[in-house]
Specification:
The complex is a heterodimer of chains A (283) and B (243). Helices cover 70% and strands 3% of the residues of chain A. Chain A has 283 residues and is mainly alpha-helical. Chain B has 243 residues and is mainly α. Chain B is flat and about 75 Å long. In chain B, 77% of the residues lie in helices and 2% in strands. Chain B is built from nine helices and two strands, in the order ααααββααααα. Classes of the chains: A mainly alpha (283), B mainly alpha (243). At the A-B interface, α1, α3, α4, α8 and α9 of A face α3, α4, α5, α7 and α8 of B.
Chain lengths: 283, 243
């Protein structure tokens, strides 16, 4: 964003887009209860139609869904595992990167700017491929070898864009803290590092939490990308199940079933995020 | 052109960095085709989603509650489910339901990628339009109507020009996301940039080089879009608006 000239008309207020969820890269995913109802309706309708249309000689759609639910659940837990680890790694790295963006050292600032721009603007899938193919399948540390299975590599691949976006959240939050805080800390003889970690960052947590949670929801949905690179998560398993059953009438019910699961997981997070946003906005 | 090719041949011989796309005409043609497909898919989706998005935003502001609810449901559904699952849903679940024309499916993988991505982008564009229209101050509309503008005139000459400018930053973001999302089409074998690169690296065994080239290509595309949109924003700026 380039710096703009200040407003020349005192009367006109600047136009601002209202409402969450306008800017996808700043995170807002908006899960509404209405979406859940629509999804559930799609699921129920497709199951009912397929159940009626199924010939009596073959097992019904409901039986098939019940039969495969444990396997799908295992795949879905795997998705959640990947999302949690990727979020942890991405957040830890992102906080450091975000602080580096504000460093008084020019070289560090420039390098971290480049890293953030690069990882924010590269497609997730390409980053995922990047990590999958370029990381070794095991690491040797002296005599011990650490195996790196596919899903761990996928976790790192998904953590990269999260890192860059968390860095932006941290930078934005730190910059939104009044300068007086820095000056007050300075006058109390806090060092720069002490000021940052003990005074500024604790105040930022509140501001960072809603966008951070939004990114978690986005990440959870993005874990399905891991199926493209061969990790056995819920999408891969869904594909295998439909292949094994060889029934075209199973496709719509089973895919909407998976969609519903994602929704069921992400909706509470989204609702909580909105509650937090509303609460912090009041103060 | 020959100089560049011979330089990359020399690079391969001396350092082992193998970028066949710069000197092997077959690989170059494949890579360029992939690039062209990515640009084409993005462009089609962009145009279609801008038009459909405006339409969806209009329906969201409709006076009939049922229409409004349906439009909002559509927007919510596409924004809140994983894009990859949407793509699979269209390609694998709805694809086989379409009738075949002359033995070939009515919509190929490119067609389904276009449909799926367009609907996704339409949902995002609709939200942006709606927010842009809501951002126009009420006082402006009242002022225009007190000057004797008709409803249509107000919409066309006051609200839209201001709303479009207000939506520019969000639209830039959306466009960047669209280009990035086209990589998903790889999953249903659309011959776009990632797919073509994957073919090249599996034949030439030059994964690291192709990966870096691929990343540079995408970052360059996004950079160009950002640059162009910022220029456009600067050009269209009305004094007194924006920060």
């Amino acid at each position: 964003m380039s710096a703009r000239a200040p407003a020349t008309f005192a009367v006109m207020h600047p136009l601002r887009l209202q409402g969450a969820g306008v800017d996808r890269s700043s995170g807002a995913v908006l899960f509404s209860a209405r979406t859940g109802i629509a999804l559930a309706a799609l699921f129920v309708a497709s199951v009912a139609l397929a159940q009626i249309a199924a010939p009596p000689t073959r097992p019904g759609i409901v039986d098939l869904l019940v039969k495969w639910t444990p396997l799908l659940a295992r795949g879905f837990v795997f998705n959640l595992l990947i999302s949690v680890f990727a979020m942890l790694i991405g957040t830890a790295a992102g906080v450091l990167l975000g602080i580096a963006r504000l460093s008084p050292r020019r070289a560090l600032r420039g390098a971290s700017w480049l890293a953030v721009q690069f990882f924010r603007n590269a497609p997730w899938l390409v980053l995922l491929f990047f990590v999958m193919f370029l990381f070794p399948f095991e690491i040797r540390l002296g005599t011990t070898t650490i195996a790196l299975p596919d899903w761990i590599k996928a976790t790192f691949g998904l953590a990269l864009p999260i890192m860059a976006n968390v860095a932006e959240i941290v930078r934005g939050a730190v910059q939104s803290i009044p300068t007086a805080q820095w000056e007050a800390a300075r006058s109390l003889a806090f060092s720069r590092r002490q000021t940052l970690w003990k005074i500024i960052l604790p105040q930022c947590v509140k501001r960072m939490l809603p966008p951070w949670m939004n990114w978690y929801a986005i990440l959870t949905m993005a874990t399905t990308l891991a199926s493209i690179v061969g990790v056995s998560e819920v999408m891969t398993l869904t594909g295998r199940i439909t292949n094994a059953e060889g029934r075209t009438d199973l496709l719509i019910p089973i895919y909407s079933y998976v969609l519903l699961w994602f929704f069921a997981y992400c909706y509470p997070i989204s609702a909580w995020t909105r509650r937090l946003e509303a609460r912090y906005a009041e103060r | 052109m020959d100089d560049i090719a011979s330089w990359f041949v020399w690079l391969h011989k001396t350092t082992g960095i193998k970028l066949t796309v710069f000197y092997d005409s077959y690989d170059r043609a494949r890579f360029l085709k992939g690039l062209a497909t990515t640009v084409e898919l993005s462009a089609y989706c962009l145009v279609a989603s801008l038009v459909l998005g405006a339409f969806a935003a209009m329906l969201q502001g409709s006076r009939m509650a049922a229409v409004r609810r349906a439009a909002t449901g559509f927007v919510q559904l596409f924004r809140n489910t994983p894009p990859l699952v949407q793509l699979y849903f269209f390609y694998f679940a709805l694809g086989p339901l379409l009738p075949k024309v002359g033995g070939a499916p009515l919509l190929g993988s490119f067609g389904w990628a276009f449909v799926s991505l367009t609907l996704l982008e339409t949902a995002f564009a609709a939200e942006i339009y709606r927010a842009g229209i809501e951002a126009v101050p009420k006082a402006m509309i009242e002022a225009a109507s007190s000057l004797g503008f008709s409803r249509v005139q107000i919409y066309r000459q006051v609200v839209l020009p201001l709303a479009l400018r207000a939506t520019m930053p969000a639209m830039t973001n959306n466009l960047v996301n669209l280009v990035k999302t086209t990589t998903l089409a790889y999953a249903i074998a659309v011959p776009e940039l990632v797919y073509m690169s994957a073919q090249i690296w599996s034949e030439q065994v030059n994964v690291p080089e192709m990966m870096v080239l691929l990343l540079i290509c995408y970052v360059a595309m996004v950079g160009l879009i950002n640059h162009f949109m910022q220029w456009l924003e600067e050009r269209l700026r009305v004094p007194g608006f924006g920060q």
